[in-house]
Amino acid sequence: MDVTQIEVLVDGLDHPEGVAYDHLRGVLYAGGEDGQVYAVDVENGSFAEIARTPGFVLGLAVDGAGRIVVCDSVDGAIGIAFTEEAGPVTSCYRPDRIYYLDPDGALEIIAEDPEGTLLAAPTNVAFVGAGRRTLVSANLGRWHLTRLETDVTGVVPHAPATWAVDAPAGSGNAVWSAG
Question: In CATH, what class is 8-67?
Answer without folding.
Answer: mainly beta
